[in-house]
Hints:
The chain is of the alpha/beta class. The protein has helices at 9-14, 31-40, 53-67, 83-89, 98-103, 119-129, 145-153, 178-185, 205-214, 235-243, 254-259, 276-282, 287-296, 321-340, and strands spanning 20-22, 43-47, 75-82, 107-113, 137-142, 159-163, 169-172, 195-199, 218-221, 249-252, 268-273. It is 39% helix and 17% strand. An 8-stranded parallel beta barrel has the order 1-2-3-4-5-6-8-9, surrounded by 8 helices. The chain starts with 8 loop residues before the first helix and ends in a 5-residue tail after the last helix.
Amino acid sequence: MPSDSINTKLSQLLNVPAPILIAPMAVATTRSMMSAAARAGAFPFYGAGIDSSSQIVDVLRGVRRDLGLPDEAPLPMGVGFISWILKMTEGPDSDDKRLMKVLNEQPKAIWFAFGDDLNIYVDKVRAFDAEREHKTVVFVMVNTVEQAVRAVNEWKVDVLVLQGIEAGGHGGATAPPLSILLCAVLPVIPKDGPLVVAAGGISNGAHIAALLTMGASGVVCGTRFLYTEECAYSPEKKDVLLRSDLGSTKRGMMFDEMGKTMGWPAGIDGRAIANGIWKDAVDGLAMEERFRRLEESKGQQSHLIIWAGEGVGLTKKIEKTQDVVRELRRETTENLTRASTLVLV
Length: 345
């Protein structure tokens, strides 16, 4: 076994050498990123966002070809869905029901987030799988202890993703810091309950090792993979990230307001680089004036919407995805090995 393989219940469940997941980032994840991550031993998720079923299926089949997998083999990746978008795409009036078409492609996992009715979609997955041999691993992301208890006891999910306030993109506006949330949730999860995965602000192997020793079975990294050649962010956005430091991000709805991506449930907002968009809102400018400034600054870094988490200040170079995964695996095993020397037997 390679020295950088990390054995947890999650790595066993997903059949990967390291319990490192790439977050489903709808505006950043690409086919090339997912294929490279899978080859390097991580488990990538594709963010479905508002993509059509044909767009998502094209990506999944592309990854299958990249990895040289036969049509009947499960895909070593997952797809993430957002509840309020699912309500539109899976409703009776929709002519493009995406969930079933995605399940037909046999991704190993499906991830649901942001909703009190996610059981509807969990049940759809279970019913679909009841008619076939392949069984999908169901992930649900939560931001509070109460949400976690519901997902465990009522929805019977396979994996619980705990997202702390540090996370980039969308999440609970009042979520606790990740380490606090993890410590609060773990005691209420039964021993035979779902696996627990940590998400939010995780940028290096030291973070991963710490969370694994706290009891997480795996971690989700998002922002760290924005600093990759395969990331869909423009060169201008990546340049901003490289020049960002700790404290460069803020939470709020102003980014969605300017991006015209409203529709999120109550209590959910987004974390992004705090640039002119954030300042205009904090200064109390009227919406009309904020849109005027956005239009005037079109293409300029001062008003780009750059979703990112609190870990932005910890990375200062753009690398290949496979190299990032390998680095994270190496750093994690080094830190776990170092930690083991602290215990006297």
